[in-house]
Amino acid sequence: MKRAIVTGYSSGIGKGICEELEKNGYSIIKLTSRLENTVVLEKEIKEILKSCDIDLLVNCAGVGVFQPHEEISIAKIKELIDINLTAPIILSNLLLRSLKKTKGDIINITSIEATKHSKFSALYTATKSGLRDFGLCLFEEVRKSGVGVTNINPDITQTNFFDQLQFEPSAKEGTYLLPETIGKTVIDILNTDGVITDLTIRPQKFELNKK
Question: In CATH, what number is assigned to the domain containing residue 73?
């Protein structure tokens, strides 16, 4: 049985990915450490690697804020950078030797915002585009080892990500993605003969609701 670590596994896209991985024979190792606490996170990863190697890392956990930059608190700035960018880079660092043994994969769930420039998205876009560029560079570094690195850049997806935001997906059909769609895409990527390094998924239509 192959083993996967998926951050953000408890809800939204992360949960959808875990459900599809489990259907396809993966065992999900669920981290208990807070991603912001890198000392504890490093200790937990090292304990896991004492007993097994990892076949897949999915960096999926993410938080968002969309408001004028001067109105964002320093604590919130640090939170976004820690969760969206620092944690995936650190996890990739800690797990890379194990992934080279298994010729495994790293999949980064970034965002459509990593591919464009939107009003009130400077901080969020900085973290997600940073993760996207990290993944593209890392692939060039590790491709000879057999490790695959893929970025998935989802457009608006119907999850609890929007609970604390000022907008949400429209309820109209065709204006949003579903978490299981991203999960199935992960399986397709893992089954591809070759490496898909960067993939953007968008709904056919675009419409948001303001709260």
Answer: 3.40.50.720
